[in-house]
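Bit of a strange request maybe. I'm writing a small parser for structure token strings and I need a real example to test against, not something I typed by hand. Could someone generate the tokens for this chain?
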Amino acid sequence: MRKRYYIMLVARNSEGELLKIPIPLHYLYVFIAGALIGMLTITGMAGSYTRMLLKTQRFNQLRTEKEALNKRYTQLEQIAQANQLQAESLSSLASEVSTLYGLKPDPAFEKEDPAQASRQFSELKTTAMNGTASIGIGGGLRNATILDWTRMAAAPTLWPVDGHISGSFGERIDPFNGEGAFHRGVDISAEYGTRVIAPADGTVMIADFMNGYGRTIVVDHGGDMTTLYGHLSGFTVTEGQRVHRGDTLGYVGLSGRSTGPHLHYEVRVRNTPVNPNKFLRTTFAQQFGSATGAM
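Reply from user aminoacidic:
Good idea to test on real output. This should exercise your parser:
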């Protein structure tokens, strides 16, 4: 069978001399098939790359949406916790007011028995001479039970630092974002480095850096009562240490979210913030100065 060829003519020089190049037909078919396969391969690779880009773009979009949802969820969770904490504080305040005006009895008083009263009286003797008794008499507890006096002796009635209250307990405008917020304690203005004292006997639970509070100390006074001291510049106590009324805990500072030197002071009952104002009865100088003068 005679082979078929394509003749390719190529001019070799300016004089027009031609060069004949015979190309077998099956070579041409192979070339065309290879070109088609190459085009299809390049087209497929381009399509795969395009799909990969689209999937990557979609993945990044979904990841951004997920991060935004997580951030929003965290914000809503913090708001819910703050609202729950505020509701518990208001409930505690309502309970205290109701008990104060005799609207309902204090369950702790109803459970008082002679044996328990004897133990409480024994405990009270160790703190009876620290000035708390005079505070209780002045506060209208002349006819109180031994349980009342024991609670008073253990209550954080000293001012942790001398100064005026620059931020009250309850609803206020956040100084950083200008929005409404629930203030869990009081801010007591004082000079940087002023010593912060323990308002009652207790055990140091936390002496560490806490988010928002900066350098913070938490003292457990027993009876489900704790106090918190925020924005400190330094500590003089360690976790687990036993402290007594009037002992130095640390020093006023401006660590954490603070607009200036002051002490953020909280009183918590069963981990629920209550208004510290009802506990701030006397300063260290007033109590221990009067005790020294009476000796």
